[in-house]
Amino acid sequence: MSFDDLGLSEEVLRAVSDAGYTDPTPIQAKAIPHVLMGRDILGCAQTGTGKTASFTLPMIDILAAGRARARMPRTLILEPTRELAAQVAENFDTYGKYHKLSKALIIGGQSMDDQYKLIDRGVDVLIATPGRLIDLFDRGMLLLSDVKILVIDEADRMLDMGFIPDVERIVGLLPKMRQTLFFSATMPPEIRRLADAFLMNPREITVAPPATPLEKIFQGIVTVTRKERGRGGGGYQKFKREALRALLEKEDVRSALIFCNRKRDVDILYRSLKKHGFDAAALHGDMAQSARTETLGKFKAGEIKLVVCSDVAARGIDIIELSHVFNFDIPTHAEDYVHRIGRTGRAGREGRAFTLVTPEDGKYLHAIERLQGRRIEEIHAGPGKPGPAARAKQDHAEPEKSASPRQSAKKSGQKSDKKSDKKSAGPKRDGKPDDKHDGRRNEQRGQKPGQKPGKQPGKQPGKQPGQQPGRAGKDEGVVGMGDHVPAFMRRPAR
User: Fold this and answer.
1) Exposed (0-12), middle (13-18) or buried (19+): which is 40, by Cβ within 10 Å?
2) Are 454 and 487 in contact (CB under 8 A)?
3) Under 8 Å between Cβ of 269 and 328
4) Residues 6+ apart with CB under 8 A from 302
5) How many whole angstroms separate alpha carbon 223 and alpha carbon 389?
6) What 3-state class would DSSP assign to 55?
7) Of 65, 94, 152, 197, which is least packed with CB atoms within 10 Å of its CB?
8) How big is the chain by its Cα radius of gyration, in Å?
9) Is pLDDT at 446 greater than 90 in this prediction?
10) Residue 457 pLDDT greater than 70, yes or no
């Protein structure tokens, strides 16, 4: 199937051809005809499969007829991050260059007055993040009563970032009669609930199992076992940086994203790489929007080879020539791992993804492998042994509590006897051993009253096979503490 078979206009087909695309991806082939028919769409496809073009291409054709009014956009596209919103805006510029459609990008970190001036002139497409959109609406700068098409993109990321209450409020401001396009890479129960609330008789499109990485991405893990003393959980950082540098020198890296879990670690790793002569830049949510845009632009243009980033770059960033993804920190959610490595291996190309793991990361690695249904190959690079150091904790995703003596006995196949446990402590009165009872017990052992308990010659301590605990007999074993009586209890009583 080609784009000519999807019902798109000649202008859109020409723009797609100019961009170098000839055949649609599965999600595009299934979604575009239904969007053109005006159906609601519930699309679930793994990252890197072209979800953005599956709604931008038909929307351009739909918007070609009509004109926007001041402060009343005709379509609304909600994105979780500024980078994703900017990328969708670039797609409209690319595919809509033969149409005279106006658009506005409404994101934080930019002048609100400039954004209001664009809206006031009237826009066909409004691409926004939820926070800035609500700010403009509350100030009376925006009306949403004329929105005909709503797109909620990367809905699972909206959920992770806590935007769902804002999204529900925005949807409540829109007309009831509208077309809604709902796209997500994963479909957890909460996202399914939202889809049922927002969509009317949707066409559900699933082109691949949710949250599974592309088959053309080679995945490997590098185990780092050496740990700095006195550093706690962060004691692996120095050796992880050594392992990462060894990987970067070993691999043929043309361009790569290096993910950290915390913004603080992004800056530390970035400075370390620069110190060792690597061409690197940093990207995280605390940076100014102008700096983030500049860094991403240079990276796409090939002026920067490595970008150390947080999960702000894990969703939807489309860099076709990205050869590698490195997880300096393993993500705590398995779905985030899928989105991170999905930045490489795009548009049918091959990619390589490596993750640095420590012995404490076993449960996260186990969750990722369980989600994929396969084990990740172990690679030796840098400090530490290439053995199963991280996998040792896979089968214990939750920390085990210390077992009681009774539980330990069950595990070893022995039964615990409460009566024996009680007798083993020996009768006591006022916190002291009962001398009379102790003397009788010594007689049963063959010892004279007053004699210190000890090991009998020729007899092994412990219970003999077939013997009932606590019962006097010919072959009775040690009762009570046996050879382990504390010294203070051996002193003669006054």
Assistant:
1) buried
2) no
3) yes
4) 255, 321
5) 7
6) helix
7) 65
8) 34
9) no
10) no
In 3D space, the residue among 486, 483, 464 whose CA is nearest the CA of residue 475 turns out to be 464
Lowest-pLDDT range, 195-204, 323-332, 360-369, 485-494?
485-494
Quick check: 270 and 281 in contact, CB under 8 A?
A: yes
Structure tokens at 344: 């490489």
What the block records as the tokens of 218 is: 């080679």
Query: Which among 115, 15, 113, 130 is positioned nearest to 64, based on CA atoms?
Result: 15
CA distance 49 to 312: 19
321, 254 Cβ separation under 8 angstroms: yes
Give the integer Cα–Cα distance in Å for 199 and 203: 9
Distance CA 248, CA 256 (A): 9
Q: Which residue has the tokens 């940086």?
A: 241
- Cα separation, 286 vs 319, in Å, equals 22
- Distance, in Å, from the CA atom of 107 to the CA atom of 381, rounded to the nearest integer, reads 41
φ/ψ (deg, to 5) at 411: -65, -35
> Is residue 135 packed enough to be buried (19+ CB in 10 Å), middle (13-18) or exposed (0-12)?
middle
Reduced to 3 DSSP states, what percent helix, strand and coil does the chain have, rounded to the nearest 5? Answer: 40, 15, 45
Please tell me the distance from the alpha carbon of residue 467 to that of residue 459, in angstroms, as a whole number: 15
Q: What is the pLDDT of residues 287-310, one digit of tens each?
A: 887 888 889 889 988 899 999 998
Structure tokens at 238: 């120095």
Contacts of 466 (CB under 8 A, 6+ apart): none
List Cα–Cα distances, 260 to 263, 304, 326, in angstroms: 7, 18, 9
Helices (H), 153-278: 155-160, 164-173, 189-198, 237-250, 263-275
Q: Which amino acid, residue 109?
A: G
Q: Given pLDDT bands bounded at 50, 70 and 90, which one contains residue 480?
A: low
Contacts 24+ apart (CB under 8 A), 170-178: 170/76, 170/78, 170/130, 170/133, 170/134, 170/144, 171/198, 173/137, 173/144, 174/76, 174/144, 174/145, 174/147, 174/150, 175/145, 175/146, 175/147, 175/148, 178/147, 178/148, 178/149, 178/150
Average confidence (pLDDT) over 171-178: 95
Query: What is 108-165 written as a DSSP string?
Result: TTS-HHHHHHHHHH--SEEEE-HHHHHHHHHTT----TT--EEEE-SHHHHHHTT-HH
